[in-house]
Amino acid sequence: MRAVIARDRAAGAEGLALAELPYPHVAENDVAVRVHAAGFTPGELDWPATWTDRAGRDRTPTVPGHDVSGVVVELGYGTTGLTIGQRVFGLVDWARNGSLAEFTAVEARNLAPLPADITHTTAAALPISGLTAWQGLFVHAGLVAGQTVVVHGAGGAVGSAAVQLAREAGAHVVGTGRGDARETVLGLGAHAFVDLHRDRLEDLGEVDVVFDVIGGDVLARAAALVRPGGALVTIAAPPPVWPERARAVFFVVEPDRAQLVEVARRVRDGRLTVHVGAVLPLTEAVGAFTRRSGTSGKTIIDVAGDDQS
Asked: Which of 87, 93, 92 has its CA nearest to residue 70?
């Protein structure tokens, strides 16, 4: 099968190549998925799990990409809950070969059924961004109706999903980011927008939840916004400053079938809009790691060459 591989951690994206690999081994409770569309995170080449297995052993050449949408073509021993020929989407485990390949092996529990009216390209943009937003808001922050939430980086893939989910949950939503994201963020349902380069965060006053995807100075300043009993939640790095009498949580997204189903339901109902940017063939996946697509939204790799199926 064809796959994008990385052989040298020091080379980063420059060391990526399109190559031939053996069909993946399907272990107990796994399924093999014929990949139709895949998503990736440019920074994943810096993650330790990209290069080693769970025991810390080198596993190069490694296949990047963790968002996957496709069709089940093989069941491992003991696998239940999915069937051959079923459309699925979800997350490939961080410490095994990923989705930028014609076939990938995935734990069945990391996948959810994909409704027939959601395309593979849309589905491949959902798992990391949708699950991260869901878990940050509802699992870690415990957001409920009537609370005020600040979403840092509201114009990005995770931030835009968080804005929409928080608004639907009945929260008062403040999005932040670059000034050119203002209209997009407000159009997604945010009640207000803060330009991080021109406006003062401190003018917001106290809020119940800050959900951060940016890190750095923005994350450090966010602690002062959280009222007692609230929560500062981030995926960027452990918070350097903790809010007083409030929680601070740094987390890494985890696969969850039930949450994937909830996210997909909202896409079908029109309650959650997924912004797909460039859609590129597998032959252009290597270049996609090293250049901006020229469009906003998440870059998706159309592995099977069928784009909208």
From this structure: 87
Residue with tokens 């401190």, as numbered in its chain: 202
Residue 291 pLDDT: 75
Distance CA 251, CA 234 (A): 7
Query: 90 and 39 in contact (C-beta within 8 Å)?
Result: no
Residue 99 has pLDDT above 80, yes or no: yes
> pLDDT tier at 202 (50, 70, 90 boundaries)?
confident
- Which amino acid is present at 268? R
**For residue 134, what are its two tokens?**
């869901």
What does pTM read for this prediction? 0.95
How high does pLDDT run on average in the chain?
94
Residue 9 pLDDT grade (very low, low, confident, very high; cuts 50, 70, 90):
confident
Specify whether the CB–CB gap between 33 and 104 falls below 8 A: yes
Q: How many CA atoms lie within 13 A of 260 on its CB side?
A: 27
Model confidence band, residue 182 (pLDDT cutoffs 50, 70, 90): very high
Give the count of beta carbons closer than 10 Å to the beta carbon of residue 78. Answer: 10
Stretch 144-149: mean pLDDT: 98
Rounded CA separation 250/230 (Å): 15
Terminal CA-CA length for the chain = 21
